[in-house]
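Can you give me the bound-state structure? Components:
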Amino acid sequence: MNNRLVDLYKKQFKANPEKYFMSPCRINLIGEHTDYNAGLVLPAAISKYIQAVVGKRKDNKIHLKSLNKLGDIEVSLDKISNTPENNWGNYPLGIFATLQKRGYKLPFGLNIIYSSNVPIASGLSSSASMLDLTAFIASKMYNIPLQNDEIALLAHQSETEFNGLQCGIMDEFAIALGKKGKSIFLDCSTNKFTYEDVSFKDLSLVVIVSNVKRALIASPYNQRVAECNEALNILKKRFNITSLSDLKVLDLEECKKLLCNNVLYRRVKHVVTENQRVRDFIDASKNENVELMCDLLNRSHESLRDDYEVTGEYLDFLHDISLKYGALAERMTGAGFGGSSIAVIKKEDFDDFKEKVIKDFYLKYRIKPLIFLADICDGLVVKDIVNKKK
Ligand code: ADP
Ligand code: MG
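Here's the bound-state model for the whole set.
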């Protein structure tokens, strides 16, 4: 429970909040830029959280406050649209609009105060955390029975339709279905998943947030989605496929010939080999072959750098210095560019590794990365707030 948030709520709204909620963020172990290609991913929820306290209102307004963003937002439920004035609120507001679009009646308004220690716009998916959290809040406050996978689907519908991002389902799933100590092996062609015990044995899994804000670089995310679709349309004439993930590594030679355009071929090559790396990683993990697991993580980074071209100089520099300072594996995690990465290091090396990586990165870019041990945790949490009578 966050007493500070509860007190703030009471002070601002002159009423008691009813429920407290928490939503983690996520890393992805392997399987990058495969989700929107109906491929394989292996994410896990990690214990940095957006927290929220929530209460009902007597009118039909949604009032949103975030301790991480300037400006409260207040909108009537029957007037929600994606507007520049709604600013950061366009993420949470999309959930209420999407529920109404699905035909749910939302008979009263809500006050929500958010507070978060998830780095925003840093590749750990604060957006999906915010969307899943708000979908979960709506399901509990309006008594709409939604399973965790349905929360993820609702949040994904909201991000694609209301916010207009052509993203895959991975982030919303990883957060809504998070389970302590488990990674989520998800097939995005069916949304079927299994929980996996991925262990690096006596090694530590580390998260590196570059702290390079994505606004510094124009992100070509939607361009990659379009390139994959373009390649798929060409390849469909020769292969009986519905997505690039239906292709096998053995098909790549043929693809190379068909896609005279070298760039499109490299995009396809990444998607196809990345899906295979996810399968190989799962097998290596089951066989406790940590060396192979690390090798696959490094090869994933190389493929994202050389073929998919989404790493960017900051994450490539982090990759290089991490390996130089003893990491057995290091790869970008999430969409890429000014985002985050994961590394596998010896436990006893952590302090030394952290100090050296931060120092080198700061010397080059004057930006201090955030480095911490990955703590794989449960997904969404709700608690009743017991308001003591004075
Ligand atoms: P990320 O890599 O963190 O998902 P995005 O650019 O996809 O970055 O999403 C960031 C958006 O999510 C913000 O612009 C804001 O709308 C929303 N958001 C995330 N966390 C918060 C927060 N604590 N307070 C307000 N808005 C938030
Ligand atoms: Mg995001």
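A couple of observations. The mean pLDDT is 95. The longest strand covers residues 43-56.
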